[in-house]
Amino acid sequence: MEVEFNPILAVDSYKTSHKWQYPDGTSHVSSYVEARADHSGLAVPGVVTFGLQAYLRRLAAAPVTAAFIDQARTLFAAHGVPFYEEGWRHILARHGGRLPVEIRAVAEGSVVPPGHALVQLVNTDPAAFWLTSYLETALLRAVWYPSTVATLSWAVKRLLREAWEQTSDAPEASLDFKLHDFGARGASSAETAALGGMAHLVNFQGTDTVEALLAAARFYDEPMAGFSIPAAEHSTITSWGRAGEADAYANMLRQFGGPGRVVAVVSDSYDVFHAVESLWGGRLRQQVLDMGGTLVIRPDSGDPVEVVALVLRLAANAFGTSRNSKGYEVLHPAVRVIQGDGINPATIRAILARMQADRFAIDNIAFGMGGALLQKVDRDTFSWAMKASAIQCHGVWRDVFKQPVTDRGKGSKRGRLALCRDAAGDWHTVPAGSCAEADDLLRPVFRDGALLVSHRFAEVRARAAAALRDAAPRHSGDGPAAPAPVLASAEAG
């Protein structure tokens, strides 16, 4: 369901009453957004900040109008909550409907440890002191979801990069296509698919989520953020009948094969091991070799670790391998494997560990991830929150904070804040003014309805990639990495 973006209505109902709850003399409220803690089980050094610009571009393009105010007045009256119509009329008359706030944020694509201020906002018109916290619902939602998906995707790329360093001679750029987004059908909405799919593309270039491509073009000026290939599904293979399985496969090669081309074929409609050994590696072997491209065999059921291990072994027997400089086997270039069923960070790690034990390079495989990528995250994955930290009353700034005795983890920061890095590269959230303005990484990105900074998608990708290269390895030695905690249950797809 497409809903018109009225910024007045992008709010929790209870916030409409907050204007009357602040102390007399309040003129400014300053709040910040942070990821308070890592509950993901990913052991990442930080969260990948992403997605704020998508919201700010929508906000800049949708100033408050009289029609928006009328709509909100009618809705809230029927809904049973107060509505500060005078305040919104003031914003319309004084500011042309553009929201009088300043938003500062760390550059998107930065990887920042939990516990630091990533966004800070304050009203610029004293009469709109109530507006800062009013924006929490939309602003926090705009940041936590795409940043969490980008972090999950980044963490998987970190796993893949470790395996690449240990087992592969291929260019590092090959990692950009090692995790493919199959999550569109499992996403809760088209907007979820667009934002989450776009967040994945910060780290990779493989996707089947078309909404993500549109979002990257619309919000980050990226003409084409991701790529895909022709691929079969069970309906197209089984429509030939079990007796026609080999004919269905041959048709895929005829229709989509060719020099330099890549085609993926799901091969477990009946018996994936028979398909690899007797069909792809027997009856159709010469056709696979003669097409001049690459066949990607896709298992889609069973235990991912065991199935991938056997499929690789059968493919190696049928098509042969070469040994790279690191002592790992690489399948003939005409054949590769993609595993898209049951994939999450834990199963990826387990599959890679088994491949290393069997002396297969990471070159042989790519992964597809669906609901575990776009849907099995929530705000608590990194304990995202937006909190007021300072208020100006009667011309004097004072700190605002919470410190519940029942949960120290929910304590909040106090005062106006800055985000800095020291000579060692460590991050510090400090009181505003305690570091030079030029060193404050919370830079103005939005003020009084106007976007001040426009990140291009390539810039965001470059920051995330640089942080990946700088990240310290999580294990030592030449053996397979130790298992990581499970982020989410295996995809049943």
Automatic annotation (TrEMBL):
Residues 471-493 are annotated as: Disordered. One of its GO terms (molecular function) is nicotinate phosphoribosyltransferase activity. InterPro entries: Aldolase_TIM (IPR013785), DUF5598 (IPR041529), N/Namide_PRibTrfase (IPR041525), Nicotinamide_PRibTrfase (IPR016471), Nicotinate_pribotase-like_C (IPR036068). It catalyses: beta-nicotinamide D-ribonucleotide + diphosphate = 5-phospho-alpha-D-ribose 1-diphosphate + nicotinamide + H(+). Residues 8-103 form the Nicotinamide phosphoribosyltransferase N-terminal domain. Its EC number is 2.4.2.12. Residues 177-424 form the Nicotinate/nicotinamide phosphoribosyltransferase domain. Transmembrane segments: none annotated. It comes from the Bacteria. Residues 480-493 have a biased composition (Low complexity). It is an enzyme of class 2 (transferase). Keywords: Glycosyltransferase, Ligase, Pyridine nucleotide biosynthesis, Transferase. CDD domains: PBEF_like. Pathway: Cofactor biosynthesis; NAD(+) biosynthesis; nicotinamide D-ribonucleotide from 5-phospho-alpha-D-ribose 1-diphosphate and nicotinamide: step 1/1. Belongs to the NAPRTase family. This is Nicotinamide phosphoribosyltransferase. It comes from Phaeospirillum tilakii.
